[in-house]
Amino acid sequence: MLDRLFGRSKKKNESEAASAVVFGRYSDNNKSVAQTARWTDADNLFKEKKYFESLDAFFEYLKDDAEQNTLYERNDETGKFEIFQGSKIVKGMFNRDELKAEVTLAGMLQPSVPVMRRLLESNFSLYYSRFALDDGRLCMRFDSDTNTASPSKLYYGLKELATKADKQDDLLVQEFSSLQAVDNEHVAAIPLAEKEVKYRYFQSWIQQTLDTIASVDADKFSGGNAYLLLALIFRIDFLIAPEGKLLSDLEKINGIYFKKDERQTIEKNQDMVDAFKKLQSLSKEEVMNSLIKSKHTFSIVSPQQYKVIADSINGANTNMKWYVDNNYPFFATQINEYGISYCQYSYSIPRVITEFFHLYMMINYADYFTDLGFGNPYFNAKEKRFSQQAILDKIATIQGRWREKFPLLEIKTQNLRFDSLINFNTSFTTELSLLNTEAK
Fold it and tell me: Phi first, then psi: what are they for 70, rounded to 5°?
């Protein structure tokens, strides 16, 4: 009765719903001290020719308890495993002679020359795996002799197999009518209410960015407009977390800007604007079809030295100063956001940094998180008021959770400014750039 009177059960339900929402790309740069030790064990055991014990340690290293992303079973000198990566499952087996892994991409009941040509061309970009056709199943395969299946070979071979298959299956099925989607029953649907919120903000964020760009001189603001468009890509990628074709479309827009050619920024900006307009015109169903919940084992990007992340943050904070001084607050906040969101999009960064970035986004897009069911926003945009103690408590919680692995990591909260959003963002990201991420 007290729960009904004071709304406690409602808050609990909102919290449970919110905790199920997935944000951003998966990063496997999240291993505990114990898991890192298991990689060393796997390497040492392999050198000692204890191949099966090495496999035990390797799959313990891969396992992410939060994702429940792997299944592994060994019976003496034989075993089997499954690895989840987005819409695909890698299924494998091993014995004293060999280790094999396979993933089914699609069903192909009738031979198709265009499909086979595409896969033949794609084979040239593969280092460890290969495409195969087996009784109407279009597959990718990886195999190795057991006595040469070192942890490094397994990691990069299985990563290539899993990530390439996850990316190719949706694109192939959508492009070629002769192919049928198969083996994706494990992919979970997300609630319709969550899809509705994500679709609404997907449209409004694009429109806000395009309206802002249309309101300024395209030549004079070419640099600022580029920041707006790129930050929009990274925001959609992290907060809406699309997969399949929509993810591929965002990657293509990103490629427009970063492609090395002789074109001017103003030309690239226009191409990105046109591409976003095409995304806007997608039907609601098309967008929602890319909003799914799946498990991952491998990151699709690689780690970087933390100095690269710090330089990105500091460079963006330097470049936003003109927009602050000349009263363009939206440009300033987006450039600041770009500095850290570019790293979240482009690199496999330590999960502790992702958790800080998540807090940053919860502060800057409080309405979005409220609409998704998160309670007690960290920032009230209308009143321009921070929930300062809640922010400080969250920072302390994140640091405490990762203290064992990063004993020297600390945000100096006394340096944070709460007098305006732009000042908070600048002070917070500056603190992120100064973090000591030396792992134990």
Answer: -140, 150
CA 408/CA 404 separation, integer angstroms: 9
Picking from 45, 35, 26, the residue whose alpha carbon sits closest to that of residue 151 is 45
Where do we find the tokens 């070629």? Answer: 176
CATH number of 33-175: 3.30.1460.10
Residue-by-residue pLDDT tens, the chain, 440 positions: 334 333 444 444 444 456 688 898 888 888 888 999 999 999 999 999 999 999 999 999 999 988 889 999 999 999 999 999 988 999 999 999 999 999 998 888 777 888 888 888 888 889 999 988 888 888 899 999 999 999 999 999 999 999 999 888 777 777 777 777 776 777 788 999 999 999 999 999 999 999 999 999 999 999 999 999 999 999 999 999 998 889 999 999 999 999 988 899 999 999 999 999 999 999 999 999 999 888 999 998 899 999 999 999 999 999 999 999 999 999 999 999 999 999 999 999 999 999 999 999 999 999 999 999 998 899 998 899 999 999 999 999 999 999 999 999 999 999 999 999 999 999 999 999 999 999 87
What's the one-letter identity of residue 170?
D
Collapsing DSSP states into helix, strand and coil, what is residue 276?
helix
Degrees, nearest 5: CA angle 269-244-241:
70
Q: What is the DSSP letter of 187?
A: P
d(CA 233, CA 244): 15
Tokens representing residue 127 in the block: 């280092």
Task: Determine the 3-state secondary structure of 82 from DSSP.
Answer: strand
Domain locations in the chain?
33-175, 192-433
3-state SS, residue 439: coil
Full-model pTM: 0.89
Q: In whole angstroms, what is the distance from residue 155 CA to residue 28 CA?
A: 12
Long-range Cβ pairs for the range 266-274 (8 Å, 24+): 266/218, 266/219, 266/222, 268/226, 269/213, 269/218, 269/222, 269/225, 269/226, 269/229, 270/218, 272/226, 272/229, 273/210, 273/213, 273/229
Beta bridge partners, 130, equal: 141
Contact at 8 Å (CB) between 176 and 114?
yes
Contact residues for 178 (Cβ-Cβ < 8 A; gap 6+): 108, 109, 110, 112, 115
